[in-house]
């Protein structure tokens, strides 16, 4: 397979043989991501070999998936059929989700200056669909990437829980932020105070990572699946989902700032979110994710987060 280093190929062979012994002789590797590697076993069934997850903490994920899949959405979401352990590695069996990535980010040029209508329409469909899924206890029990406790622990409002996370996350590496952001402690303080001042909102599921590869579409460009819940998944204000989506849809392209502004205006107009609240949530997102991939001038995500706070 082009682009697969020898150790990856060896690992792929190992799992293909494992699934063959489990009764799936046509198993083949589909893709890898932050959560693990996915193999197609047969029509309609895939297996995920999880990275860094154990069977003991998977029950919450199964409940989360079930809470979302149980709603009547215009697109599919992950459904767990079974799970097992192999040498300490979690393997889950799931229904295969249809479609192809809306945009992989690896198969062409950077996004054009004008976002295609099919992309913006797809985003509105997904955001409206997710906003219709009420928050549940499983969603409120999820831990954001990089944190050490459930987001909602000790809180009864999303905005309060998010403010506390902003303070914890900034405290992890405030010195690193100070190399790029003027008076970061003041930025953190103002952001947390603004979050706590927000009015109450009805909670719905938040995916938290609606980047192009995580939305699959059919040939007509209609969303048929949303993948990879877990990175920043919780229950909360749908405006947070809209704000993060506008920010991460194109983070590094030559027209990234234009696209964020365009999507923010679109979501404000079509979904009823206040643009100042979207801007606040973007700052909060920068403060809770700035150090997750690296901390230095060569890390694109760190630079992007610092730019949101400057």
From TrEMBL:
Keywords per UniProt: Transferase
Molecular-function annotations in GO: ATP binding; protein kinase activity
Organism: Streptomyces variegatus
InterPro entries reported in the protein's UniProt record: Aminoglycoside_PTrfase, Kinase-like_dom_sf, Prot_kinase_dom
Segments forming domain Protein kinase: 24-310
Short name of one Pfam family: APH
Protein name from the UniProt record: Aminoglycoside phosphotransferase
Lineage: Bacteria, Bacillati, Actinomycetota, Actinomycetes, Kitasatosporales
N-terminal signal peptide: none
């Amino acid at each position: 397979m082009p682009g697969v280093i020898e150790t990856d190929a060896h690992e792929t062979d190992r799992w293909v043989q494992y699934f063959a012994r489990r009764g799936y002789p046509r198993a083949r590797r589909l893709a890898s991501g932050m959560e693990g590697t996915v193999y197609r076993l047969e029509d309609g069934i895939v297996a995920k070999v999880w990275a860094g997850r154990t069977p003991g903490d998977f029950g919450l994920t199964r409940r989360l998936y079930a809470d979302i899949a149980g709603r009547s959405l215009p697109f599919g979401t992950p459904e767990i059929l079974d799970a097992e352990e192999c040498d300490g590695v979690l393997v889950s069996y799931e229904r295969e989700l249809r479609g192809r990535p809306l945009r992989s980010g690896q198969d062409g040029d950077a996004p054009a200056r004008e976002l295609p209508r099919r992309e913006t329409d797809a985003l509105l469909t997904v955001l409206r669909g997710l906003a219709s899924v009420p928050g549940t206890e499983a969603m409120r029990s999820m831990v954001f990437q990089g944190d050490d406790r459930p987001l909602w622990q000790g809180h009864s409002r999303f905005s309060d829980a998010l403010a506390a996370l902003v303070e914890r996350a900034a405290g992890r590496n405030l010195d690193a932020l100070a190399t790029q952001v003027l008076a970061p402690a003041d930025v953190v303080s103002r952001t947390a105070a603004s979050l706590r001042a927000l009015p109450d909102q009805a909670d719905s599921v938040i995916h938290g990572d609606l980047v192009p590869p995580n939305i699959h579409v059919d040939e007509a460009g209609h969303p048929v699946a949303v993948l990879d819940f877990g990175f920043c998944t919780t229950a909360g204000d749908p405006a947070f989902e809209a704000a993060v989506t506008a920010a991460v849809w194109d983070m590094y392209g030559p027209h990234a700032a234009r696209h964020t502004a365009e999507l923010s205006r679109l979501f404000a107009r079509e979904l009823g979110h206040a643009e100042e609240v979207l801007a606040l949530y973007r700052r909060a997102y920068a403060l809770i994710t700035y150090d997750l991939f690296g901390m230095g001038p060569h890390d694109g995500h760190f630079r992007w987060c610092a730019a949101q706070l400057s």
